[in-house]
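Example 3.2
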Amino acid sequence: MSANFEAKKAVVEEIAEKIKASKSVVFVDYNKLTVAEVSELRAKCKKAGCEYKVYKNTLVRKALNELGYNQFDADLNGPTAITFGQDETSAAKVMVAAAKDYEEKIVLKSAFVDNAYVDKAGVKSLATMPSKEELIAKMLGSMQAPIANFAGVLSNLMSGIVRVLDGIAKAKEA
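Structure, written as tokens:
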């Protein structure tokens, strides 16, 4: 086998591993971006905990097909950049924001989230959702509120009882 074939096989394995390790993968058309804009976008992705990469479409298609997903074949045409996210929403948020910032230069294609194909509209919806961590924080806050309120009621009840007993003691002294 040729060295070129082995190199391509290694890249396909790398892509498959990145897809497996990521909670979300967003595919975009980046055709009209300048080098400076791509560098800026990479920095934004890194800040959000994502990785922005460009691979050959045939290698990405092969990696996805090896993982058992062929829904992306139509999307993997033309210049395609991939953003690998560590959570379900960060990659979508960064790419939707980039599509707005770089008007007409970035076009959303699709995404791979929770082992499922997500179309362009789904990617936009993902970008509006709070992250898993934000949802957990909200849930814990709402769970903590009744407990804090109950503790306040108990504290007021105890201080009320103490005041009543103190009043009774002063009335008996007099």
